[in-house]
TrEMBL record:
Keywords: Acyltransferase, Transferase. The active site is at 141 (proton acceptor). NCBIfam families: NeuD_NnaD. InterPro entries: AcTrfase_PglD-like, Trans_hexapeptide_repeat, Trimer_LpxA-like_sf. Belongs to the transferase hexapeptide repeat family. The lineage of its organism: Bacteria, Pseudomonadati, Pseudomonadota, Betaproteobacteria, Burkholderiales. This is Sugar O-acyltransferase, sialic acid O-acetyltransferase NeuD family.
Length: 219
């Protein structure tokens, strides 16, 4: 039986941060690091941090019984397109999580998540597909997070918050706790700027910055 082949799709900064986590996870499962590669559509080198870099076509052509990939692409729109591409070619989504990630009670996590060191998911949480949670981020109780949402490092997502698909939450942003009957909502495709303190709902597609966070109006 042919062995599976695993990949981190994206060999730039995001991918290089996820690769050691992926390697450690496979090691715990007794899978040789030689079965782990980078995928990059325009590879700058054939080897990065000791791992082979393949184009997507090379990855598909490689001898393997099955193929898995985690999408280490910060841009959520590109991430969704690559997810569709992989699904069409039979490449299965793969969740990678650091060994010290804390998950508490009743947490549902969609496929293809990337959970960096010191991430905490508390209780009664629903998270969609291909979620990225960077270093020291947390999600508190009774939150609902959509597909292709990205948390930069240090995001503080407090309780009773709904974050819709493709939202981006910047580094060290704080989202105030909502109420059980009136959750605070971050709309689809919204951007919360670095260090913003969000005290009210954010409309779809809006960018908010500052403390308290206000909508950025482009001139």
């Amino acid at each position: 039986m042919k062995s599976p082949l695993y990949a981190v799709y994206g060999a730039s900064g995001c991918g290089r941060g996820i690769m050691p986590l992926a390697k450690a996870q496979l090691h715990e499962q007794g899978i040789d690091a030689a079965r782990l590669v980078f995928i990059d559509d325009s590879p700058a080198a054939g080897l990065i941090n000791g791992h082979r870099v393949l184009t997507y076509d090379e990855f598909l052509a490689h001898d393997a019984g099955s193929r898995y990939a985690i999408l280490a692409i910060a841009n959520s729109v590109v991430r969704e397109k690559l997810a569709q591409r992989c699904a069409a070619d039979g490449v299965q989504p793969w969740t990678v999580r650091a060994a010290n990630v804390i998950t508490m009670d009743d947490v549902t996590l969609g496929e293809g998540a990337a959970l960096s060191p010191f991430v905490t998911l508390t209780s009664n949480i629903r998270i969609g597909r291909h979620f990225h949670a960077n270093l020291y981020s947390y999600v508190e109780h009774d939150c609902v997070i959509g597909d292709f949402v990205t948390f930069a490092p240090g995001v503080k997502c407090n309780g009773n918050i709904h974050i819709h698909d493709h939202a981006y939450i910047g580094a060290d942003a704080v989202i105030k706790q909502g109420k059980p009957d009136r959750p605070l909502v971050i709309g689809r495709g919204a951007v919360v700027g670095m260090g913003a303190v969000v005290t009210r709902s954010v409309p779809p597609g809006a960018t908010v910055v500052g403390n308290p966070a206000t909508r950025l109006v482009r001139k």
